Amino acid sequence: MYSTGNRITWLQGPGANCAGTGPVPPRPWHFVLLGPPGVGKGTQAEQIIAEYGACHLSTGDVFRYAAHDTSGQAPSPAMAVALAAMKRGELVSDATVVELVRERAQCLACRYGFLLDGFPRTLEQAHALDGILARIGRPLDAAINYFAPESLIIERLSGRRVCQQCRTGYHVANKPPRVSGRCDACGGELIQREDDKPEAIRTRLRAYAATCDPVLEYYRRQGLLREIDASSDPKAVFVHTRDVIQKLNRAVSS
Ligand code: AMP
Q: For residues 123 and 219, is the Cβ–Cβ distance under 8 A?
């Protein structure tokens, strides 16, 4: 069972030093996790990390962290524009997201490996990522694409709740807290993310659909794409995820 550091460099930027903790995996994996918002990439990421190590690097988490920054410092102008786009459920500009990932390249070079979640979302971002990975000598092992019917995704997203204090995730039907509206871990108030409200969900799914095909095709052509049906429960989906990783493992060790 692996655990990785506190992701503080990823969340706050290169000025913050994360202390990688726990055993280093024998083989650091470098994965991109693809799929629409709400398909369950975050849940799969948690299980991949526990079994194989790696750090969960979500670009959405970087924006959410900045949105809840309590340091009292105003966000940079570029970040303020990005946060307004996020609140509407729209994509942040390629230039801003790529810059944010580029300045965190040390997280991609980390000895624990990485699971990039929510990036790349456009072909431009995929090209930029290749450039960054080539510079740090960490080629991708695979791009794992999770898919599920839209009706199921809307149901999952609209029931999602998150603790305002510690960010632990819940679902009103599938993973309810013991006390309604309160976090099991810290007792904090559970809230619905601004971008999990119905209008923003529709905008996010449209934004995803408008840009995903070229990215999938890009990785398919390179032989890196692995497709996983994510309509069943997370444990069953993880059986397929593990299968994909074990096949990759056999391929690299043969
Ligand atoms: P997520 O948690 O991945 O759904 O991301 C939440 C929001 O952050 C998205 O709806 C976008 O506004 C923004 N965002 C995160 N990653 C990207 C990206 N790679 N490109 C553009 N916008 C992004």
A: no
